[in-house]
Amino acid sequence: MYDLTLERGRIKVNLKAFSVGKDLCVIISGGDIPHIGSVTLSIPRPSLSNSNERSATTSVLNLLGHKDDEVARYVSHTLSSKLNKNVVVTCGIHVDNITAEEIDVVIDILKELTDIVIEKIQKLFL
After folding, report:
1. CB burial class (10 A; 0-12, 13-18, 19+) of residue 79?
2. Strand pairing of 87-94 and 23-31?
3. For position 108, which CATH number holds?
4. Based on the structure, what is the number of domains in the chain?
5. Is the pTM for the entire model greater than 0.70?
6. Helix, strand, or coil here: 113?
7. Is residue 31 left, alpha or beta, with left meaning phi > 0 and alpha meaning psi from -120 to 50?
8. Residue (of 97, 95, 99) closest to 37 by Cα position
9. What is the strand order of the sheet 54-62 is part of?
10. What is the pLDDT of residues 51-76, one digit of tens each?
11. Which pick of 2, 15, 54, 124 has the fewest CB atoms within 10 Å?
12. CA 20 to chain centre
């Protein structure tokens, strides 16, 4: 299991990733009120534009009024494509009165955490 946290200013995001057999389950939480805002499932497949590359098909379930789906989809799709695994992500980050700049910080943090997970898992198989 990987339990990773990054914090910048008042933005704090935690990502937990653990194996379920050959699959990967990820829980992303953070901010003032962690919750379940969105759930995604990504299944790896050959890219539709280049069969030598891998992509993923991603399905999203989003709770009414939540905006966690975009970052959950990014994390799920990226991990599935890069690691060739079925991936489920649950994501819930709430920061009171978040600014547009802080939303960008959340996105940057999640991109960095995703890269860290990919690197760690790929090292296991080298």
Report:
1. buried
2. parallel
3. 3.30.230.100
4. 1
5. yes
6. helix
7. left
8. 95
9. 2-8, 11-20, 23-31, 87-94, 38-46, 54-62
10. 889 999 999 999 998 999 999 999 99
11. 124
12. 16
pLDDT by residue (tens digit) across 91-109?
999 999 999 999 999 999 9
- CB of 113 closer than 8 Å to CB of 6: yes
Where helices occur in the chain by DSSP H, the ranges are 69-83, 100-124
Structural domain harbouring 50: 2-124
Tokens of 66: 């939540």
Distance CA 73, CA 111 (A): 12
Single-letter code of the amino acid located at 98: I
Residues 6+ apart with CB under 8 A from 116: 2, 4
